UniProtKB/TrEMBL annotation:
EC number, as in UniProt: 6.3.1.21
Enzyme class, first EC level, given as a word: ligase
Keyword annotations of the record: ATP-binding, Ligase, Magnesium, Metal-binding, Nucleotide-binding, Purine biosynthesis, Transferase
Presence of keyword S-adenosyl-L-methionine: no
Domain ATP-grasp: 113-303
NCBIfam families: PRK09288.1 (NF006766), purT (TIGR01142)
Residues where ATP binds: R108, K149, S154, S155, G156, K157, G158, Q159, E189, E190, F191, I192, E197
Name the record gives this protein: Formate-dependent phosphoribosylglycinamide formyltransferase
Name of the gene this protein is made from: purT
GO MF annotation terms: transferase activity
Pfam families assigned to the protein according to its UniProt record, in alphabetical order: ATP-grasp, PurT_C, RS_preATP-grasp-like
Length: 386
């Protein structure tokens, strides 16, 4: 099939990741309708059109699809009524990477069952619970410490490390309170004592082999990403193993697009954690590190455009800029101080702030990863959300 541009994209979720995707898509002349649950979301600020709806509501989704008739649906968050995406796909709209992939990764249990039970991939030991009583038993079975997470959440929301039985009830309440959507189910996982963790950006193409970006290392706090760097330190042997696992899972989900496949890395093992069927937050480091960033790669994979080579230009790092207070208007200070040599900023333009909300990012290049990390952290620390 001969590709003609522009194509029309409907972006479901309009945060910082969506904003960069819109920019990449528009650079090749495409048009984008940005959708989210609140007005003036980052991607809406650069998109052609926008819609504010509940993406968990099937009727709302139906209405925007009817109105805009997109060629592609690009999910940007997990919390979407994905059963509806299966319907749209059957009606001939291309859902990226596939409606099945969004459906399987919307909740932690489906993707875990696929990876572990169906594909036989090693994961942390895990169990599910739908009541506090069940969680008490499950936590005993898994052992302590363990990690309790809502079945539907992201960026560490509702997640807690539980060190002893007395903490189980608090973890249950916290998980249920911070669960997205209507689910009352949690997963409890064995705590993996990893040396490092990586995201392997995996690009699945319609008519070409799957390719990988150099591994990205990252550090998380309370389940949310604080800094990432590329390349990650990992032996070739473990990297090859991670690539094989990423290929296996993404093959089984099908379609085309970029996936962020997350692994825990121990001394002699890579352990599959989870994956996003879309650009990954830790992958924002590629905005500075690679010849093609993760958003450009996603776009090219979606449109079936060539990706001749992925090149790591220089060791690089990203560090997040978080809000510390509630605010219904946002300004930033310290920008001039942050912008030293080989540093860039992305200030997302989120209309309001809450403690812990990611509001921006510092990106830095260095002669090595250590220098890049130091610069990115330093730059991020200069910028204050007020
Ligand atoms: N079983 C575990 N053992 C040790 N650490 C864990 C475990 N599960 C999660 N973590 C830590 O918490 C982080 C976030 O976990 P996870 O990726 O499952 O959450 P998430 O809410 O889906 O985050 P995101 O949406 O940002 O990817 C991990 O990157 C890791 O640092
Ligand atoms: N780990 C997933 C992730 O980073 N998702 C990114 O955060 C946005 C939500 O931010 P918000 O909660 O500040 O609105 C999402 O829209 C996406 O861009
Ligand atoms: Mg994760």
């Amino acid at each position: 099939m001969v590709l003609t541009l522009p194509r029309k994209f409907l972006l479901l979720g309009s945060g910082e990741l969506g904003k960069e995707f819109v920019i990449a898509a528009q650079q090749l002349g495409n048009s984008i309708v940005a959708v989210d649950r609140y007005a003036n979301a980052p991607a809406m600020q650069v998109a052609d059109k926008c819609e504010v709806i509940s993406m968990l509501n099937g009727d709302d989704l139906e209405a925007v699809i009817e109105k805009h008739q997109p060629d592609f649906i690009i999910p940007e968050i997990e919390a979407i009524r994905t059963e509806k995406l299966l319907e749209f796909e059957q009606r001939g709209i291309t859902v990226i990477p596939t409606a099945k992939a969004t459906n399987f990764t919307m909740n932690r249990d489906r993707i875990r069952e696929l990876a572990h039970t169906q594909l036989g991939i090693r994961t942390a030991k895990y169990a599910y619970a739908t009541s506090l009583d069940e969680l008490v038993t499950a936590a005993q079975d898994i052992g302590f410490p363990n990690v309790v997470k809502p079945i539907m959440s992201s960026s560490g929301k509702g997640q807690a490390v539980v060190y002893q039985p007395e903490e189980v009830a608090t973890a249950w309440n916290y998980a249920i309170k911070n669960s997205r959507g209507d689910s009352q189910k949690i997963i409890v996982e064995e705590f993996i004592q990893f040396e490092t963790e990586i995201t392997l950006l995996t690009i699945k193409q319609w008519n070409a082999p799957t390719i990988f970006c150099p591994a990205i290392g990252h550090r998380q706090e309370n389940g949310d990403y604080q800094e990432s760097w590329q390349p990650a330190k990992i032996s070739n042997e473990l990297l090859v193993e991670a690539q094989a696992i990423a290929q296996k899972v993404t093959d089984s989900l099908g379609g085309a697009g970029i996936f962020g496949v997350e692994f825990f890395v121990t001394k002699d093992e890579v352990i599959f954690s989870e994956l996003s069927p879309r650009p990954h937050d830790t992958g924002m480091v590629t905005l500075i590190s690679q010849n093609l960033n993760e958003f450009e790669l996603h776009l090219r994979a979606v449109l079936g455009l060539p990706i001749p080579q992925i090149e790591l230009l220089t060791p690089s790092a990203s560090a997040v800029i978080l809000a510390h207070e509630y605010a219904d208007r946002v300004s930033y200070t310290g920008v001039a101080e942050a912008l030293i040599e080989n540093v860039e900023l992305r200030l997302f333009g989120k209309p309001d702030a809450r403690p812990g909300r990611r509001m921006g990012l510092a990106l830095a290049k260095g002669i090595n990863v250590e220098e890049a990390r130091k610069k990115a952290l330093q730059a991020a620390s200069k910028v204050k959300v007020v």
